[in-house]
Amino acid sequence: MVMDEMDWEDLLACVEKPSRYLGTEINARHKGKGAELHFALAFPDTYEVGMSHLGIQILYELLNSIPAVAAERCFAPWPDMEERLRKSHLPLVSLETHRPLFAFDLVGFSLQYELSYTNVLNMLELGGIPLLRGDRKSTDPLIIAGGPCTFNPAPLEDFIDAFVIGEGEEVSLEIAAAVLAVKRRGGSRTDALEALAALQGVYVPFLHQGGERIRKRIIGDLNRWCLPTRPVVPLTKTIHDRITLEIARGCTRGCRVCQAGMVWRPVRERGQEQVEAMAEGLLCATGYDEISLLSLSSGDYSRIEPLLSALMERYYEKRVALGLPSLRVETLTRSLIENIRRVRKTSFTLAPEAGTQRLRNLINKGNTAMELLATTEQVFAAGWKSVKLYFMLGLPGEVHDDLEGIAELAYQVLQTARQRGQVTVSLSTFVPKSHTPFQWQRQISREETVEKQAFFRTRIRHRNINVKWHDSRMSLLEGIFARGDAGAGRLLAAAFRLGCRFDGWTDLLRFDLWEQAMAQVNFPANSFREARPADRELPWDMIDCGVGRDFLLMEAGKALTGEATPDCRTGLCQNCGVCDHETIKVITAPIPIAPGAVEKAAETPVAVPPLSMGDAVLLRIKFRKHREARFLSHGELAEALIRAVKRSGLAFCYSQGYHPHPKLSFAFATSVGMESREEYADLQVAADDRDHLQLQKEINALLPPGLEILEIKQMHHPSAGLTTQVIGFDYAIALPSGNNADLSVLKDRISSFLQSQTVIIVRETKEKRKARDIRPYVTSLLLDEEKRELLLTVRISNAGTVRPQEILTEVLGMTTDAARKARVVKTKTHWVPNDK
């Protein structure tokens, strides 16, 4: 059961960013036919956010490695797509085969953020699945949820059939096997839930009602799970548009505010040799130009300096940048800075968390202002112009001096820049999360948050210090669902019914509707903020994250005196309860037997040297853009082409500076939704011995469906840029089916247009409205009545041109929607005589 392709293409033609919904990316799997078990991996946020998440890439590859299982992806539709689906009475479908969510056997949600919960309900409803688990019938899919938010499953218990607690690699395979076995023997939905409840780390609210404690799942050795190997490469630009390579999992620094540092213990590092091998494989499989080395604290990886040196030595000439997205102040050494900056200066975000040493000690942060200032001085000295500092407001024990301390640190950091530095101070509101030593603490009110934020408006007034803060309304909602019980679920359902969606997006948050929902269900929002006695039962007590209650209480007691708890990697075991010291234990990366890394920092060149002109050649490619690829924007098309060229082994020449770009230029941008039979681009690359036909074949094999190189030729005497050589285009525009009277009206409109000397239209942009005469740009406009096709020829000048969509709407009187759905094909490019 799949959506009709005509309906789907009409939808794509009318939404803001159709590439979010295509599913034709490189490395995407299309296993719909022949699979016995259909598993939807659902992410309750936009494609750009979801495809930046490593977990969905891992599970997608892992589940599709099972011959009988087809795993497909589905993301929260943006409001424009939701509106179209509802108006057309069409269901939410998967990317790969356009299968409706209700037609899957399992739908697994990844819960990364509490403010995505209304999107979960929206995706269920749009997918044709009853919201309440008690209302689901035998034919409905099983709804599963995993991710960090499941460490407090209570607010979603009425909507989710089963929660996966902990790390998902092993248990996802067990879930697929268990449900497949039930399906093969013709078992019921209840049979499937019972099979899931028997798995360690799976919480089934319908069955686990006897006070059972559900122990989290944990991967003992990351070296056994080197995934993904062939990640899906998004066609559109995502939040983290790069390779994400996990070098370690878990953290034992023991920050008392950090849920991730508690629930993902212990630390398990991948071996350096494995990381290097994964990096090579991922670069070959994706064509990316940046590797992000992921960990809760990347600088704590025991082999971080030799690893960075080894990677940089190997990939420096290919202009592959390295990034460390999570760095503690005290782990950022000069060697790390030098290696990071060699190709491209990726951003630096440092997290002091608190403004005074007293408060940093209280939360067991374990770094000092002196370390921060020494680090930022090195960063600015190495060429960075800006640094971002992350702090929390409303920490337990916070007083006014701590706010003053944040401001003082911001000014001191700016002074380390010496000249023209920029400091961004990012302020979030502390939310006491489950399974942390501060889970019993209160969360400050919205009014308190706004008052503290107002302090910084007047206290920090410097053009080179930018202060940003998290929306106090979002912090309140986050606290409600992070610490809530089933009552929070009733509030969630009410807010969803009123129209709440994408509550983590400032421009889409409808807090007025949340307030209305609170009034409807008589929800006591303030009670969820208050401190809780240590002897009170908590909504998440049925979940065992491994860290014992006694350890959390001991840490809460130490916070009162500011007593530090050392990292167990460098000191004695703190008896937190996670490790059994046999299968579950701290694992650090061994020193390689034959290290590929250079143990000292590599020399840092002042600039990236270009290929010599003797080594460089200019290749002109002719290609077409059709079928699914017509929905790609110009930028998305360019990125797909760049990655395919890189993966083919052809080496680009690059621009100079610290942000080098491949030397690639196009004749003109083709708009989203338009097909083209001949597009042109120039590539400046290193000389290559391969025959052009062979090279064309190899690159085409690496392009997404609908993009195809038709010809490659070397330009021995390149003239001016492509844009100066093109003088016009031919278009063929297929008209929608209709009666002959429609054609008669069009003929009259065309005749009137061609007889006119001037035709003024108004173009609107975000900045202004501008009147333009489009008549001089139309060379020919004909109607082929038999084919129901318009034939349009336009010319281009320095002043611009006319767009086919403008002919359809302004000349022929079509609605914007009808014009978007019309099939526009660029059939020919006209060149300056004797040029091409």
Describe the protein in words.
With 836 residues, the chain is an alpha/beta fold. Helices cover 32% and strands 18% of the residues. It contains 25 helices and 27 strands. Helix 5 links the parallel strand 3 and strand 4. The longest helix is centred in the middle third of the chain and has 18 residues, at 400-417. The model is unreliable at 595-613 (pLDDT under 50).
Any chance you could write out the topology, listing elements then pairs?
Elements: H1 5-14, E1 37-43, H2 47-50, H3 54-64, E2 69-75, H4 79-88, E3 106-110, H5 117-126, E4 142-146, E5 162-164, H6 169-184, H7 189-197, E6 202-203, E7 214-215, E8 243-246, E9 248-249, H8 259-263, E10 268-269, H9 272-286, E11 290-294, H10 304-315, E12 321-323, H11 334-341, E13 349-353, H12 357-362, H13 369-381, E14 386-393, H14 400-417, E15 422-429, H15 446-459, E16 465-469, H16 472-483, H17 486-498, H18 511-520, E17 543-544, H19 549-561, E18 616-625, H20 634-647, E19 664-666, E20 675-686, H21 692-700, E21 707-714, H22 722-725, E22 726-734, H23 740-755, E23 760-764, E24 769-773, E25 778-784, E26 789-795, H24 804-811, H25 816-821, E27 823-831
Parallel strand pairs: 1-2, 1-3, 3-4, 4-5, 7-17, 8-11, 11-12, 13-14, 14-15, 15-16, 20-27
Antiparallel strand pairs: 5-6, 9-10, 18-20, 18-21, 19-20, 22-26, 22-27, 23-24, 25-26
Q: Provide the helix percentage.
A: 25-40%
- Which CATH architecture of the largest domain? Alpha-Beta Horseshoe
Oligomer: single chain
- By DSSP, the count of extended strands is 27
Total count of domains: 4
Shape: globular
How many H/I helical runs?
Answer: 25
- SS content category: alpha/beta
> What does the main sheet amount to?
8 strands, mixed
Ends apart, CA distance between termini: 48 Å
Alpha carbon gyration radius: 29 Å
Spell out the CATH superfamily of the largest domain: tm_1862 like domain
List segments where confidence is low: pLDDT < 50 over at least 5 consecutive residues. Answer: 595-613
Indicate the mean pLDDT.
93
Approximately what portion of the residues adopt beta-strand conformation? 15-25%
